[in-house]
Design a protein that fits this description.
With 207 residues, the chain is mainly alpha-helical. It contains twelve helices and no strands. About 4% of the residues have low confidence.
Amino acid sequence: VLISLILFANSIYSQDSYYYFSRGQNLMDSNDFRRAKLYFDSALIKNPNHTNSYFNRGLCLGMLDDTIGSLNDFVKYLELVPNDPDAYERIGYLKKELKDTSGAIRSFDSCLKYDPSNYDARISRGKMHWMIDSLLKSHNDFEYAYHLDTNKIEGVYFKGVSHYMLEQYDSAIKYLSLSFKKDTNYINALYYKAYSNYEKNGNIYFK
C-alpha cells in the first residue's frame, strides 16, 4: 500500500501545468467550479506564469462569489497579458459589484479601447455613466451599442431611456415603443414612454 501511495504521489508531482489546466478546464465546462479552481491552483504552483489558469481561476472564483479573489486573478492576468479586452471587461463587472463605479468605468474604457465593438461593455459603461449623471456619455454608449446590433432589445430600450433623459421626447417615444413591442417584459418602457408623452403633450399614455 505504501509503495502504491508513493507511486501515485510521484505521478501527480510529475504532471506539468498543462495537465492541471486541462483537467480544470473540463471541470469548469461541467460547471464544477470549486473542483476546477483546485486544478488551476495546481497549474499555477507548477507554473506561476500560466496565464490561462489565472483567467479561468478568476472566472471560477467569480462563480463562487469570491469577488476579491476573482479580481486579483484578473489583475495578475493583465500583468502578463496587458492588452486583453476580455479581462478588462471582467474587472469592470467585478468593480461594479464592489460599488466602485469610477473604477468600473475605467475598466470598461480599457476594454473598449482594445475592442470598440464589445456590445455588453458598451451597455455596461452606459449604465455606469447614467449612475453618475453623465447623461451625454451614457447616451453615446447606448447609441453606439444600438447600432452594433439593432435587434438586441437592451440597446433599443436604453437608447429610448437616454433620449428621455436628454429631453428628446419624440425619439424616446419611438425607441421605447419599439423595445416594448419586441419584448413585453420591458414594462419600464411604458413608464418612460408615458412621461415622454406627458412632457411633450401634457398627457400620459401607457399603451
